[in-house]
């Protein structure tokens, strides 16, 4: 999401409108804003008496992996470091009774800085020696 416009710009638009320096459309052109943005600034000022942007708390879904759950995942990965994301999701669901996608699991692990070191000693895929030719 883009950042809200600065308070300085908001105040200048409100002051210019209060001083009758132009219509909404003229002020939009002058400050390089859309007409709807200028109208929104004015509406917000009339309704609340302030030009501060709305708070953005509560946007989106809360994270499924909070601190106690992250601690559980850390312990599981210490015991079994070779678990895949899918297997971690299954363990999470069995323990907490909530489903979680692999992408949400990955985001949660990154957020809590839980690293996974996969075992590099797995047998490599076997390939026939030498180049293969199609006949």
Structure report:
This is Transposase. InterPro entries: Homeodomain-like_sf (IPR009057), WH-like_DNA-bd_sf (IPR036388). Residues 126-135 have a biased composition (Pro residues). The chain has 135 residues and is mainly α. Among the domains are: 7-48; 67-111. The chain has 6 helices and no strands. It has helices at residues 7-18, 24-30, 35-48, 67-79, 85-96, 102-111. Helix 5 crosses helix 6 (102-111). It is rod-shaped, with a radius of gyration of 28 Å.
Oligomer: single chain
| Overall mean confidence score, pLDDT | 87
**SSE series:** HHHHHH
**Strand coverage percent:** under 5%
Shape: rod-shaped
Report the C-alpha radius of gyration, rounded.
Answer: 28 Å
Report how far apart the termini are.
56 Å
SS summary, helix count: 6
Secondary structure class reads: mainly alpha
Low-confidence stretches: none
Main β sheet profile: none
Q: What is the helix fraction of residues, given as a range?
A: 40-55%
Number of strands: 0
């Amino acid at each position: 999401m883009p950042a809200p416009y600065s308070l300085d710009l908001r105040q200048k638009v409100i002051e210019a409108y209060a001083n009758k320096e132009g219509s909404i459309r003229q002020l939009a052109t002058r400050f390089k804003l859309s007409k709807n943005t200028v109208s929104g600034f004015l509406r917000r000022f009339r309704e609340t008496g302030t030009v501060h942007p709305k708070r953005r708390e509560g946007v989106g879904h809360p994270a499924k992996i909070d601190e106690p759950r992250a601690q559980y995942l850390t312990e599981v990965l210490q015991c079994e470091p070779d678990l895949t994301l899918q297997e971690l999701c299954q363990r999470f669901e069995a323990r907490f009774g909530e489903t979680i996608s692999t992408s949400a699991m990955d985001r949660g692990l990154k957020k809590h800085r839980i690293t996974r070191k996969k075992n590099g000693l797995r047998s490599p895929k076997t390939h026939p020696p030498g180049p293969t030719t199609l006949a």
